[in-house]
Write a structure and sequence with these properties.
Largest sheet: 6 strands, antiparallel
Strand content: 25-35%
Distance between the termini: 73 Å
Number of strands: 26
Shape: elongated
Length: about 375
C-alpha cells in the first residue's frame, strides 16, 4: 500500500512538473512572439489609406433671399401729373413695356415750339446758301472785287452764326424730346408686378413714394454681410452650399458674385471714443446655381463656403503630437513606421496633411503608446472615410 501511494504521489508530482513546464513554454513563446508583433493594450489596431480630398469648410455665414432683378418706380413730381398707370398687381411685364404715363400736354407743346424754332433757322440757312447776298457792280474791277470780298465775308459770318443757332435749337429739341420720352416710364426688367400705389401725394417731397414694384421671381440671390475675419478667407467665384430651416432636407448651390471692399454703415468706427470696433460688416451677394425650387424672397439662409482645396487626408485620431512636432504611424511591409508630418486645416473627423504622406499610404488610425519603429503590426483595414 505504501508503494502504491508513493507511486501515485510520484505520478501526480510528475504531472504537476509537466504542467508547469507547458505553462513556462507558453510564456516563453508569448514573450518571444511579442518581440516581433506589436500588440496594443487598447484593442485591435486599425489602419486606413491616406486619401486626397477636401475637408468641410469652417466658414459659415447667414443671408437672406432677395430678388436679383427687380424694379421700383417712384413718383416724380417734376414730371407733372400722372395721367395713367398702365399695369396692376399680378401682371406679367416685359422689359421695355410702358408702366406709367405722365401728362404730356405741356411737354408736347414745348417740343413743338422747339421744333418750329429749329426749322425756322434751318430755312434761313437754306436761303442764305441758295441766294447769298446781292452786290451792285460799278464796272470798276478794283471796287467790284473789294465789294464782292466784303459781301462774301459777311455771308460766311452770317452762315456761321446761323449754324451755331441751329445747333442750339437742335439741343433744345433733343431736351424737349427726352422730357417727353421720360413722361412714359418703361419696365427695365421682365417680371411680376407685386405692388401698385396710385395714392401718391404731390406735396410729399420728403420721402420716395413707390408707384410700382416689379420682381423677377425666377431670379433670386442671397445677400448678407461678412465680418472682417471672414473677408480674409473668401473671394468672388467661390462656391457655396445653401440650406434653409424651412426645408431642412433640401440643399442648394450658389456662387459668390460680389464682395464689397467697403464696410456698410460706419464700418465699426467709434470716433466718439477714439477707438475702432470689430463690428465692420462687408456686404456680399450670392447667385443661385441650382433650381430655386420652393425658396421665396425673405427666407433666411444658412451658407457654407465650399472648400475647393484638395489635400492628403487622414483621420484626426491618427495624428500623434510629440513636442512641437506632429507624427503619424504608417505600415510599410507589415511593420510600423513613424512619419513626421505637416498639418493643414481639420474638421471633426479629417486632418489635412501638407507634407510627409502620399495618397495610398497605410496610416494607423488608432495608434497605441507601445508602437515602435520596425515592429510588425497586426492591423485591420477600415473603411475610410467612414461609411
Amino acid at each position: 500500500m505504501l508503494k502504491t501511494k508513493k507511486a501515485k504521489i510520484a505520478l501526480f508530482s510528475g504531472l504537476g512538473i509537466a504542467a508547469l513546464g507547458l505553462i513556462a513554454f507558453a510564456l516563453i513563446w508569448t514573450n518571444s512572439s511579442s518581440s516581433d508583433v506589436t500588440e496594443t493594450g487598447e484593442g485591435q489596431l486599425f489602419y486606413s489609406l491616406a486619401t486626397e480630398g477636401s475637408i468641410a469648410s469652417s466658414t459659415l455665414l447667414a443671408g437672406t433671399v432677395e430678388a436679383a432683378e427687380e424694379q421700383y418706380v417712384y413718383y416724380d413730381a417734376t414730371k407733372g401729373d400722372i395721367s395713367e398707370v398702365k399695369v396692376k398687381v399680378g401682371d406679367q411685364v416685359t422689359a421695355g413695356q410702358a408702366l406709367v404715363q405722365y401728362d404730356t400736354t405741356e411737354l408736347q407743346s414745348n417740343l413743338d415750339t422747339a421744333i418750329r424754332a429749329r426749322d425756322k433757322i434751318g430755312r434761313q440757312i437754306y436761303d442764305l446758301q441758295t441766294n447769298g447776298q446781292t452786290v451792285e457792280l460799278t464796272g470798276d474791277d478794283t471796287v467790284d472785287d473789294s465789294n464782292l470780298a466784303t459781301a462774301q465775308r459777311t455771308v460766311d459770318a452770317q452762315l456761321r452764326d446761323l449754324n451755331d443757332s441751329y445747333a442750339d435749337a437742335q439741343a433744345t429739341v433733343d431736351k424737349a424730346q427726352a422730357a417727353l420720352n421720360e413722361a412714359t416710364v418703361l419696365s427695365t426688367v421682365a417680371g411680376t408686378v407685386v405692388e401698385v400705389n396710385t395714392s401718391v401725394s404731390k406735396s410729399n417731397t420728403s420721402t420716395s413714394q413707390t408707384l410700382i414694384h416689379i420682381v423677377n421671381q425666377g431670379s433670386l440671390q442671397v445677400v448678407g454681410s461678412l465680418s472682417e475675419y471672414d473677408l480674409a478667407n473668401l473671394a468672388v467665384d467661390q462656391e457655396v452650399k445653401l440650406t434653409s430651416k424651412v426645408y431642412p432636407d433640401q440643399t442648394w448651390t450658389g456662387k459668390i458674385t460680389y464682395i464689397s471692399n467697403y464696410p456698410e454703415g460706419n464700418g465699426g468706427d467709434n470716433s466718439a471714443t477714439g477707438t475702432t470696433g470689430s463690428s465692420a460688416k462687408y456686404p456680399f451677394k450670392i447667385a443661385m446655381t441650382s433650381d430655386i425650387g420652393p425658396l421665396k424672397q425673405g427666407f433666411s439662409i444658412n451658407i457654407e463656403v465650399v472648400n475647393a482645396k484638395t489635400s492628403i487626408l487622414v483621420p484626426v485620431t491618427a495624428v500623434v503630437p510629440d513636442g512641437d512636432k506632429q507624427y503619424v504611424w504608417t505600415i510599410v511591409d507589415g511593420k510600423a513606421k513613424r512619419v513626421e508630418v505637416t498639418l493643414g486645416s481639420a474638421d471633426a473627423t479629417l486632418q489635412e496633411i501638407s507634407s510627409g504622406l502620399a495618397v495610398g499610404d497605410q496610416v494607423i488610425s488608432n495608434p497605441s503608446l507601445d508602437l515602435e519603429d520596425g515592429k510588425e503590426v497586426n492591423a485591420l483595414e477600415e473603411a475610410y472615410p467612414a461609411e
